[in-house]
Protein backbone atom coordinates (compact mmCIF):
# COMPACT_ATOMS: atom_id res chain seq x y z
CA UNK A 1 0.00 0.00 0.00
CA UNK A 2 1.24 3.44 -0.92
CA UNK A 3 1.38 6.04 1.80
CA UNK A 4 1.90 9.78 1.62
CA UNK A 5 4.27 11.30 4.13
CA UNK A 6 3.40 14.86 5.04
CA UNK A 7 5.96 16.84 6.97
CA UNK A 8 5.03 18.62 10.17
CA UNK A 9 5.94 21.92 8.52
CA UNK A 10 3.63 21.22 5.58
CA UNK A 11 0.74 20.27 7.83
CA UNK A 12 1.33 23.34 9.97
CA UNK A 13 1.43 25.64 6.93
CA UNK A 14 -1.74 24.17 5.44
CA UNK A 15 -3.53 24.36 8.77
CA UNK A 16 -2.40 27.93 9.27
CA UNK A 17 -3.79 29.04 5.91
CA UNK A 18 -7.09 27.30 6.59
CA UNK A 19 -7.26 28.82 10.06
CA UNK A 20 -6.63 32.34 8.77
CA UNK A 21 -9.28 31.87 6.10
CA UNK A 22 -11.88 30.64 8.58
CA UNK A 23 -11.00 33.34 11.09
CA UNK A 24 -11.50 35.94 8.36
CA UNK A 25 -14.96 34.53 7.69
CA UNK A 26 -15.88 34.40 11.39
CA UNK A 27 -14.74 37.97 11.93
CA UNK A 28 -16.44 39.23 8.78
CA UNK A 29 -19.26 40.92 10.66
CA UNK A 30 -16.92 43.15 12.65
CA UNK A 31 -15.86 45.44 9.77
CA UNK A 32 -19.50 45.86 8.80
CA UNK A 33 -20.39 46.95 12.32
CA UNK A 34 -17.48 49.41 12.29
CA UNK A 35 -18.79 50.86 9.03
CA UNK A 36 -22.22 51.09 10.65
CA UNK A 37 -20.79 53.02 13.58
CA UNK A 38 -18.97 55.65 11.53
CA UNK A 39 -21.91 55.98 9.13
CA UNK A 40 -24.38 56.42 11.99
CA UNK A 41 -22.06 59.03 13.55
CA UNK A 42 -21.84 60.87 10.22
CA UNK A 43 -18.04 60.85 10.20
CA UNK A 44 -17.74 60.46 6.40
CA UNK A 45 -19.89 63.57 5.94
CA UNK A 46 -17.62 65.50 8.30
CA UNK A 47 -14.72 64.60 5.99
CA UNK A 48 -16.46 65.78 2.81
CA UNK A 49 -14.19 68.82 2.49
CA UNK A 50 -10.92 67.02 3.24
CA UNK A 51 -8.80 65.60 6.06
CA UNK A 52 -9.52 66.56 9.67
CA UNK A 53 -8.01 65.73 13.07
CA UNK A 54 -9.66 62.86 14.89
CA UNK A 55 -10.24 65.08 17.94
CA UNK A 56 -12.45 67.39 15.85
CA UNK A 57 -14.31 64.47 14.32
CA UNK A 58 -14.97 63.00 17.75
CA UNK A 59 -16.17 66.31 19.19
CA UNK A 60 -18.61 66.97 16.34
CA UNK A 61 -19.94 63.42 16.10
CA UNK A 62 -20.24 62.78 19.81
CA UNK A 63 -17.74 59.93 19.86
CA UNK A 64 -14.96 59.00 22.26
CA UNK A 65 -11.73 60.25 20.60
CA UNK A 66 -9.64 57.18 21.37
CA UNK A 67 -12.33 54.76 20.23
CA UNK A 68 -13.00 56.72 17.06
CA UNK A 69 -9.28 56.70 16.32
CA UNK A 70 -9.22 52.92 16.69
CA UNK A 71 -12.28 52.53 14.44
CA UNK A 72 -10.81 54.71 11.70
CA UNK A 73 -7.40 53.06 12.01
CA UNK A 74 -9.00 49.68 11.47
CA UNK A 75 -11.00 50.93 8.48
CA UNK A 76 -7.79 52.34 6.97
CA UNK A 77 -6.66 48.74 6.63
CA UNK A 78 -9.84 48.01 4.69
CA UNK A 79 -9.34 50.94 2.33
CA UNK A 80 -12.17 53.20 3.52
CA UNK A 81 -10.01 55.91 5.11
CA UNK A 82 -6.41 57.03 4.91
CA UNK A 83 -4.22 58.34 7.70
CA UNK A 84 -3.03 61.93 7.49
CA UNK A 85 -0.23 62.77 9.88
CA UNK A 86 0.01 63.62 12.63
CA UNK A 87 -3.49 62.77 13.89
CA UNK A 88 -5.96 63.17 11.03
CA UNK A 89 -7.98 61.03 8.65
CA UNK A 90 -9.36 61.44 5.14
CA UNK A 91 -11.79 59.51 2.94
CA UNK A 92 -10.81 57.20 0.11
CA UNK A 93 -13.00 56.69 -2.96
CA UNK A 94 -14.56 53.70 -1.18
CA UNK A 95 -15.18 55.62 2.02
CA UNK A 96 -16.83 58.41 0.01
CA UNK A 97 -19.76 56.05 -0.53
CA UNK A 98 -20.56 56.25 3.17
CA UNK A 99 -21.41 59.94 2.77
CA UNK A 100 -25.11 60.79 2.64
CA UNK A 101 -24.93 63.22 -0.28
CA UNK A 102 -23.04 61.34 -3.00
CA UNK A 103 -24.52 59.45 -5.97
CA UNK A 104 -24.83 55.76 -5.16
CA UNK A 105 -24.41 56.39 -1.43
CA UNK A 106 -24.36 53.24 0.70
CA UNK A 107 -24.72 55.07 4.03
CA UNK A 108 -28.28 53.89 4.62
CA UNK A 109 -27.31 50.37 3.56
CA UNK A 110 -24.53 50.36 6.15
CA UNK A 111 -27.00 51.54 8.79
CA UNK A 112 -29.60 48.95 7.76
CA UNK A 113 -27.06 46.12 7.83
CA UNK A 114 -25.47 47.25 11.07
CA UNK A 115 -28.76 47.62 12.89
CA UNK A 116 -31.69 45.52 11.67
CA UNK A 117 -29.72 42.82 9.84
CA UNK A 118 -27.14 42.32 12.59
CA UNK A 119 -29.80 42.03 15.29
CA UNK A 120 -31.77 39.53 13.23
CA UNK A 121 -28.78 37.31 12.52
CA UNK A 122 -28.00 37.12 16.22
CA UNK A 123 -31.05 34.81 16.27
CA UNK A 124 -30.25 32.85 13.10
CA UNK A 125 -30.76 29.56 14.95
CA UNK A 126 -34.47 30.42 15.13
CA UNK A 127 -34.56 30.38 11.33
CA UNK A 128 -32.52 27.21 11.08
CA UNK A 129 -34.82 25.34 13.47
CA UNK A 130 -38.21 26.73 12.45
CA UNK A 131 -37.84 27.92 8.86
CA UNK A 132 -39.18 31.34 9.84
CA UNK A 133 -37.17 34.59 9.56
CA UNK A 134 -35.21 35.46 12.69
CA UNK A 135 -36.45 39.04 12.30
CA UNK A 136 -39.86 37.91 13.52
CA UNK A 137 -38.42 36.59 16.79
CA UNK A 138 -36.34 39.72 17.41
CA UNK A 139 -38.99 42.31 16.49
CA UNK A 140 -42.22 40.39 17.09
CA UNK A 141 -43.57 41.08 13.59
CA UNK A 142 -42.98 40.21 9.97
CA UNK A 143 -40.50 42.53 8.27
CA UNK A 144 -42.91 44.60 6.16
CA UNK A 145 -45.48 44.83 8.98
CA UNK A 146 -42.74 46.26 11.18
CA UNK A 147 -41.76 48.80 8.51
CA UNK A 148 -45.37 49.92 8.25
CA UNK A 149 -45.36 50.90 11.94
CA UNK A 150 -41.84 52.33 12.05
CA UNK A 151 -41.47 55.04 9.41
CA UNK A 152 -37.89 55.85 10.41
CA UNK A 153 -36.76 52.28 9.70
CA UNK A 154 -38.92 52.19 6.57
CA UNK A 155 -37.21 55.35 5.31
CA UNK A 156 -33.77 53.82 5.93
CA UNK A 157 -34.80 50.63 4.14
CA UNK A 158 -36.26 52.52 1.17
CA UNK A 159 -33.12 54.63 0.86
CA UNK A 160 -30.91 51.54 1.08
CA UNK A 161 -32.88 49.79 -1.66
CA UNK A 162 -33.03 53.00 -3.69
CA UNK A 163 -29.24 53.14 -3.77
CA UNK A 164 -29.21 49.99 -5.88
CA UNK A 165 -28.71 50.85 -9.56
CA UNK A 166 -31.51 50.00 -11.97
CA UNK A 167 -30.98 46.48 -13.29
CA UNK A 168 -28.62 46.68 -16.26
CA UNK A 169 -30.62 44.01 -18.06
CA UNK A 170 -33.26 46.71 -18.66
CA UNK A 171 -30.93 47.97 -21.39
CA UNK A 172 -32.05 44.99 -23.47
CA UNK A 173 -35.67 46.16 -23.52
CA UNK A 174 -36.94 48.78 -25.99
CA UNK A 175 -39.60 50.96 -24.37
CA UNK A 176 -39.84 53.52 -27.15
CA UNK A 177 -43.37 52.34 -28.09
CA UNK A 178 -44.58 52.07 -24.50
CA UNK A 179 -46.89 54.75 -23.10
CA UNK A 180 -47.39 53.64 -19.48
CA UNK A 181 -45.10 51.56 -17.27
CA UNK A 182 -46.39 50.27 -13.94
CA UNK A 183 -43.71 49.56 -11.33
CA UNK A 184 -45.10 47.11 -8.78
CA UNK A 185 -43.36 47.36 -5.42
CA UNK A 186 -40.97 49.95 -6.80
CA UNK A 187 -39.59 51.19 -3.48
CA UNK A 188 -38.74 54.87 -3.46
CA UNK A 189 -38.90 55.17 -7.25
CA UNK A 190 -35.29 54.60 -8.29
CA UNK A 191 -36.09 52.34 -11.25
CA UNK A 192 -39.04 54.45 -12.36
CA UNK A 193 -36.92 57.60 -12.31
CA UNK A 194 -34.27 55.87 -14.44
CA UNK A 195 -36.85 54.75 -17.01
CA UNK A 196 -38.67 58.10 -17.16
CA UNK A 197 -35.35 59.86 -17.61
CA UNK A 198 -34.42 57.60 -20.52
CA UNK A 199 -37.81 57.85 -22.25
CA UNK A 200 -39.21 61.41 -22.12
CA UNK A 201 -42.52 60.35 -23.71
CA UNK A 202 -43.28 57.69 -21.11
CA UNK A 203 -45.56 57.95 -18.07
CA UNK A 204 -45.17 55.83 -14.97
CA UNK A 205 -47.27 54.41 -12.16
CA UNK A 206 -45.73 53.22 -8.89
CA UNK A 207 -47.53 50.94 -6.43
CA UNK A 208 -46.02 50.76 -2.95
CA UNK A 209 -46.77 50.91 0.74
CA UNK A 210 -47.56 54.41 2.08
CA UNK A 211 -44.12 55.15 3.57
CA UNK A 212 -42.33 54.21 0.36
CA UNK A 213 -44.80 56.20 -1.74
CA UNK A 214 -43.97 59.26 0.32
CA UNK A 215 -40.25 58.74 -0.24
CA UNK A 216 -40.81 58.13 -3.96
CA UNK A 217 -42.78 61.36 -4.25
CA UNK A 218 -39.85 63.34 -2.84
CA UNK A 219 -37.37 61.69 -5.23
CA UNK A 220 -39.58 62.21 -8.28
CA UNK A 221 -40.14 65.83 -7.31
CA UNK A 222 -36.41 66.40 -6.90
CA UNK A 223 -35.78 64.80 -10.30
CA UNK A 224 -38.41 67.02 -11.97
CA UNK A 225 -40.48 63.99 -12.97
CA UNK A 226 -43.46 64.20 -10.61
CA UNK A 227 -45.75 65.36 -13.42
CA UNK A 228 -45.18 62.14 -15.35
CA UNK A 229 -45.77 59.70 -12.52
CA UNK A 230 -48.80 58.56 -10.57
CA UNK A 231 -48.19 57.17 -7.09
CA UNK A 232 -50.55 54.56 -5.67
CA UNK A 233 -50.38 53.63 -1.98
CA UNK A 234 -51.47 50.08 -1.28
CA UNK A 235 -50.58 46.40 -1.12
CA UNK A 236 -49.88 44.40 -4.26
CA UNK A 237 -51.49 41.43 -2.53
CA UNK A 238 -54.82 43.25 -2.77
CA UNK A 239 -54.75 44.62 -6.33
CA UNK A 240 -52.58 46.29 -8.96
CA UNK A 241 -53.22 49.46 -11.00
CA UNK A 242 -54.88 48.93 -14.37
CA UNK A 243 -54.08 50.58 -17.69
CA UNK A 244 -50.39 49.77 -18.05
CA UNK A 245 -48.62 48.65 -21.20
CA UNK A 246 -45.68 47.23 -19.25
CA UNK A 247 -45.74 45.91 -15.71
CA UNK A 248 -42.44 45.56 -13.86
CA UNK A 249 -41.61 43.39 -10.86
CA UNK A 250 -37.99 44.23 -10.09
CA UNK A 251 -36.36 42.34 -7.22
CA UNK A 252 -39.77 41.77 -5.64
CA UNK A 253 -40.76 38.12 -6.07
CA UNK A 254 -37.70 36.83 -4.24
CA UNK A 255 -39.01 38.46 -1.05
CA UNK A 256 -41.90 36.00 -0.80
CA UNK A 257 -42.74 32.33 -0.49
CA UNK A 258 -43.97 30.52 -3.60
CA UNK A 259 -47.56 30.83 -2.39
CA UNK A 260 -47.36 34.58 -1.76
CA UNK A 261 -45.42 35.20 -4.97
CA UNK A 262 -48.07 33.33 -6.96
CA UNK A 263 -50.81 35.42 -5.34
CA UNK A 264 -48.89 38.59 -6.20
CA UNK A 265 -48.54 37.48 -9.83
CA UNK A 266 -52.24 36.69 -10.04
CA UNK A 267 -53.11 40.17 -8.77
CA UNK A 268 -50.87 41.70 -11.43
CA UNK A 269 -52.30 39.42 -14.11
CA UNK A 270 -55.85 40.46 -13.17
CA UNK A 271 -54.93 44.11 -13.79
CA UNK A 272 -53.21 43.55 -17.15
CA UNK A 273 -54.81 44.01 -20.54
CA UNK A 274 -54.42 41.08 -22.97
CA UNK A 275 -51.76 43.00 -24.89
CA UNK A 276 -49.78 44.11 -21.82
CA UNK A 277 -46.43 42.59 -20.89
CA UNK A 278 -44.86 41.66 -17.59
CA UNK A 279 -41.13 42.07 -16.92
CA UNK A 280 -39.69 40.14 -14.00
CA UNK A 281 -36.19 41.25 -13.00
CA UNK A 282 -34.46 38.97 -10.52
CA UNK A 283 -31.22 37.20 -9.81
CA UNK A 284 -31.40 33.84 -11.54
CA UNK A 285 -29.48 31.40 -9.39
CA UNK A 286 -27.46 28.72 -11.16
CA UNK A 287 -28.13 25.13 -10.15
CA UNK A 288 -24.80 25.21 -8.31
CA UNK A 289 -23.92 28.39 -6.40
CA UNK A 290 -20.15 28.68 -6.56
CA UNK A 291 -19.43 32.19 -5.27
CA UNK A 292 -20.41 34.12 -2.16
CA UNK A 293 -21.59 36.97 -4.38
CA UNK A 294 -24.27 34.75 -5.88
CA UNK A 295 -25.32 33.39 -2.50
CA UNK A 296 -25.06 36.59 -0.43
CA UNK A 297 -28.57 37.99 -0.96
CA UNK A 298 -30.20 34.61 -0.45
CA UNK A 299 -28.31 34.18 2.82
CA UNK A 300 -29.21 37.72 3.89
CA UNK A 301 -32.88 36.98 3.36
CA UNK A 302 -32.74 34.02 5.74
CA UNK A 303 -32.74 36.41 8.65
CA UNK A 304 -35.20 39.01 7.35
CA UNK A 305 -37.79 37.63 4.97
CA UNK A 306 -39.73 34.51 4.15
CA UNK A 307 -38.68 34.48 0.49
CA UNK A 308 -35.62 33.20 -1.36
CA UNK A 309 -33.65 33.59 -4.55
CA UNK A 310 -34.64 31.10 -7.26
CA UNK A 311 -33.28 29.46 -10.37
CA UNK A 312 -34.60 30.35 -13.80
CA UNK A 313 -36.59 27.12 -13.87
CA UNK A 314 -38.23 27.91 -10.53
CA UNK A 315 -39.33 31.35 -11.75
CA UNK A 316 -40.71 29.88 -14.97
CA UNK A 317 -42.69 27.34 -12.97
CA UNK A 318 -44.03 30.09 -10.71
CA UNK A 319 -45.17 32.17 -13.69
CA UNK A 320 -46.83 29.16 -15.30
CA UNK A 321 -48.82 28.39 -12.14
CA UNK A 322 -49.95 32.03 -11.97
CA UNK A 323 -51.33 31.94 -15.52
CA UNK A 324 -48.49 33.50 -17.53
CA UNK A 325 -46.76 32.37 -20.71
CA UNK A 326 -43.07 33.22 -20.89
CA UNK A 327 -42.01 35.06 -24.06
CA UNK A 328 -38.26 35.15 -23.46
CA UNK A 329 -35.53 35.09 -20.84
CA UNK A 330 -32.64 37.56 -21.05
CA UNK A 331 -29.72 36.64 -18.80
CA UNK A 332 -27.27 39.44 -18.02
CA UNK A 333 -23.78 38.51 -19.14
CA UNK A 334 -21.31 38.73 -16.27
CA UNK A 335 -24.12 39.12 -13.73
CA UNK A 336 -26.52 36.88 -11.86
CA UNK A 337 -29.42 39.14 -12.83
CA UNK A 338 -31.80 38.30 -15.61
CA UNK A 339 -35.09 39.42 -17.13
CA UNK A 340 -38.12 37.26 -17.82
CA UNK A 341 -40.75 38.66 -20.17
CA UNK A 342 -44.21 37.14 -19.95
CA UNK A 343 -47.80 37.69 -21.08
CA UNK A 344 -51.06 36.69 -19.47
CA UNK A 345 -52.42 33.42 -20.77
Lay out the secondary structure:
Elements: H1 8-26, H2 29-41, H3 43-46, E1 52-53, H4 54-61, H5 65-77, E2 81-84, E3 88-91, H6 107-121, H7 124-130, H8 134-139, H9 143-149, H10 151-162, E4 180-184, H11 190-198, E5 203-208, H12 210-222, E6 229-233, E7 246-250, H13 258-271, E8 277-285, H14 292-304, E9 310-311, H15 312-321, E10 324-331, E11 337-344
Parallel strand pairs: 4-5, 4-7, 5-6, 7-8, 8-9
Antiparallel strand pairs: 1-3, 2-3, 8-11, 10-11
Helix pairs in contact: 2-5, 2-6, 6-10, 9-10
Q: How would you summarize what this structure contains?
A:
With 345 residues, this protein is of the alpha/beta class. Helices cover 47% and strands 17% of the residues.
Question: Average pLDDT, to the nearest integer?
Answer: 89
Strand content: 15-25%
Structural class by SSE content: alpha/beta
Instruction: Sketch the topology as an H/E string, one letter per element.
Output: HHHEHHEEHHHHHEHEHEEHEHEHEE
Major sheet:
8 strands, mixed
CATH top level assignment of the largest domain: Alpha Beta
Number of domains: 3
CATH topology call of the largest domain: Rossmann fold
Q: Give the C-alpha Rg.
A: 23 Å
Number of E-state strands: 11
Tally of separate helices = 15
